[in-house]
Every structure is written in C-alpha cells, then in structure tokens.
Amino acid sequence: MMQVHNEADRFLEDVLKDLSEFVDDIVIVDDASTDDTAKLCRSFPKVKKLVVLQESKFQREWELREYLWRFACSSEPDWLLSVDADEFYEDKAKTHMRELINQDRYDWVGFRFFDFWGGITHYRDDTLWGIHRRHTRTLVRYMPDYYYYNPPMDHHVPRLPLSYSALPGFLAELRVKHFGWAVSKEERYRKYLRYMERDPKGEWGSLDHYRSILDENPTLVEWKEELQ
Prior knowledge:
Layout: E1 2-4, H1 12-20, E2 26-30, H2 37-42, E3 47-52, H3 61-73, E4 79-81, E5 87-89, H4 91-95, H5 97-101, E6 108-115, E7 122-124, E8 136-141, E9 169-178, H6 185-198, H7 207-211, E10 220-222
Parallel strand pairs: 1-2, 2-3, 6-9
Antiparallel strand pairs: 4-8, 5-9, 6-8, 7-10
C-alpha cells in the first residue's frame, strides 16, 4: 500500500519494479498528481488498485493515511506492507518476507530504516538522524474485526493505525533504504521550507530536526549490503 504525489521523475519507477519482485498486489492512492505518476503506476501489472484523488489531501495528512488504509483493506488482504515511494527493502529483507508472514506468533513486523543523504552510497547517522537505531512498523496482519485508530495529525502521521501497538509484534534486524533525502542540496532545502511552513512551532515534530536539514557537514556512513 502506497500514497504518491508527483513522483514520476523521482524514485517511483524503481520502487515499483522492486516491489513487483516480492509482493502479490500493489494498492496506490495518488494524491492529485499533476505529472505522469498515475500513468506510470498503471504500467505495472502488480498495481491492482489505483485511485486518483481530484483534490489533494496533503495538508490533511491523517485523512490521506486513513483513506489509503481503508482503500487497501477493501481488498481483504492477509498482510499489508506500507511503503513510501522512495523506500527500498534490502535483498535480505525481501528473502525473509514470506517467512515473516507465514507464522501465527505475531501480528506486525518492524524494520530498521536508513536515511540516505545526498546520494545512494551513504546514510546519515548523528544525534538527530538515527531512525535506524529503532524499528519502524510497516508490515501488519489484517484482521477485519479489529479496532483501527489513526490519530488526527496534520504532519508526520504514523503510516499504520496506532492500535497495532497493542498486538504482539516482531522487531526484525532487517533493513530498508530510504532515499527521500538522497537528493540534491536544493531539493533538501525545499523540503526544509515545506516542513517549516507546515509545522512552524514544532507541534508535530522537532524544530531542531527540521533545522538540521541545512547542516553543511552531517555525519555520513557508507552503506554496505548485508549478505543473505
């Protein structure tokens, strides 16, 4: 399950190629893109369901997440993998995916995410950039009768219902490459301005974290693929 907006000239094509290798179906909500994002999505056979919103919900992010969740659940899946249009699961993680879902001990899986910076060879690792030091829940079992809750937040909304935290989960030592910051300095600056515009008081996130986007010499670590 994925939400997209004007991703045609970024990482979306490679992400869809990658996902097509190990998922059964792909469900996408296009948040009123004005480029060829929808056309690109339709070109992949694994994209079984696609809806294009006529009016963007980007400024009401929790509504967009809620819409995507309900749209994906309408397919009555067994498990759902929440993926953004700039995320790539390491090969080792992909080989273990079936093993992770073919069990009855836990109902969600968390992975370690790495924020790549300025390119696809190094990830950022300093005080304010350490998402890889904790787990992010992205793979969940769907249970039709369970209570699902999404918090009404305008920014940095959890990608999956918070009520999953009450269920047994598994923290996998498997990695995901996030390329959202693996872009030019100019594009990172535009993202900084967008964050400050949407959350000027740091209500939904950390102002120090937003400002650190402008750091001239962040600590970067070379990425090394793990053997399967």
